[in-house]
Amino acid sequence: MDLPTVDLPALPALLAAPAPGWVETTDVIVVGSGVAGLTAALHLREAGLHVTVVTKVNIDDGSTRWAQGGIAAVLDPADTPAAHARDTEIAGVGLCDRAAVRVLVEEGPTRLRELIRIGAEFDRHPDGSLMLTREGGHRADRIVHAGGDATGAEVQRALHAAVQRDPWIRLVEHALVLDLLRAPGDGPDGLGPACGITLHVLGEGSEDGVGALLARAVVLATGGMGQIFSATTNPGVSTGDGVALAMRAGAAVTDVEFVQFHPTALITPAGQGVPGAGHAQQPLVSEALRGEGAYLVDSDGKRFMVGQHELAELALGTWSPRASTGCCWPPARSTSSSTRGTWVATSWPAASPPSWRPAWRSASTRRPT
Ligand SMILES: Cc1cc2nc3c(=O)[nH]c(=O)nc-3n(C[C@H](O)[C@H](O)[C@H](O)COP(=O)(O)OP(=O)(O)OC[C@H]3O[C@@H](n4cnc5c(N)ncnc54)[C@H](O)[C@@H]3O)c2cc1C
Hints:
By secondary structure, the chain is α/β, with parallel strands linked by helices. It has a domain at 70-148. It contains six helices and 15 strands. The strands form five sheets. A five-stranded mixed β-sheet has the order 7-4-3-11-14, covered by helices on one side. A four-stranded mixed β-sheet has the order 2-10-9-8, with helices on one face. The longest helix has 20 residues, at 98-117. Flavin-adenine dinucleotide binds at residues 31-37, 54-57, 61-64, 66-69, 152, 175-177, 221-223, 233-234, 237-238, 241-242, 284, 338, 341. Residues 31-37, 54-57, 61-64, 66-69, 152, 175-177, 221-223, 233-234, 237-238, 241-242, 284, 338, 341 line the site of flavin-adenine dinucleotide.
């Protein structure tokens, strides 16, 4: 299918930042310490690689620990991956990436067992079997949860502990990744694949100021971009940095229109958001409230989901603007947002640290490809 092209303004190739004052090397850099980044780090270790995880603030400051719902996986013998795929595609109103759905339904049980193996504790019946429940869109009991509605917090805790147990995973907190570095190559711009990052490590990190990390590959697992909206349930770190720095480095980004909105969040007076998280993050109002009869109104007090779907407010737990095309929902009142996690892996086929140094600064600007 031919995709429409959009004429974007020229982007600076690199952010304006001081030249790196220090340089280190590692096998693979993982940017981000949520479920995506820490899982990638553990898998890379299984492949025998040294990993450096860098994260903007503290290890658990991303979205992962806030996730309330459980994890869907086909564990009941009466359930099948095909049934899970069917439910997923119905919920995705024809917009699902079939290959991604296949991975989700076929690998789900293995990934869940992996989490259990590293120590995640999910809710169980007195006989020790996993409790399986249902969430919006599922026609079978296939949701595993932890601490009732604290699944994300348990997944983050277990992954954090597993990473801490491995001496070959280095964690650098308070490290803001600025730019991707690219090796010399034969691309149209004279550059090749990503070979590292520049980062600003604040006082609490082990290095101070701007530095550079060079590696054979870089994984961007920087989460969502809810903070580009005026109100969001995403934490303060969800500012879309990974997408921005990948674009500056010339990567093609896709599906950025898929911003997930949770339909209900609590708008609080300025400065009174989620306790301890600052006013940038609004508390999420559980969909259980709509299950109990609460409904959604627009700025005129009118219910806007009636007539849009047979289940009205109970149609879906989360909506994306593209999936809800034609729905008369008021963007100004859309209060929560996140994008699916960024996951860009680039490889640099050298086996040992490079003998050259990438150019830190570039006066050039380039249009994204
Ligand atoms: C309130 C809330 C409720 C949710 N409920 C559910 C639910 O019920 N079910 C569900 O499936 N999902 C839910 N989600 C979504 C789910 O939490 C996320 O999709 C998932 O956690 C994303 O994981 P991640 O690893 O991609 O990103 P994150 O966990 O957000 O991790 C991103 C990491 O990247 C780091 N980072 C970002 N930029 C930089 C940078 N420039 N330099 C260094 N580090 C950087 C961040 O600090 C963070 O460590 C919810 C999200 C929220 C906010």
